[in-house]
User: Fold this.
Amino acid sequence: MNVKNLPIEPQLIKQQLIILAQQLGFEGVSIGQPNLDIASERLKTWLEKGYQGEMQYLERHLPLFPSIILTLLPHCKTSKGN
Assistant:
């Protein structure tokens, strides 16, 4: 799929992203509004369970997670045009 050919309507973009992710082998695909508190807690739990495997840098950089997300959020677009 060529990114330049993606539709502009948010709902169609969402559908195309889900289809593309499934074609790439992702079983679960979800798109939603970011919630830093929930995301941080889920990441901590995920790391505590050892799911990062050999990617130890994820745990080392955990304190940076909120600032990274806050840096990216202003550049994110939502279906509400925010």
Remarks:
- Helices lie at 10-23, 36-48, 57-60, 65-72.
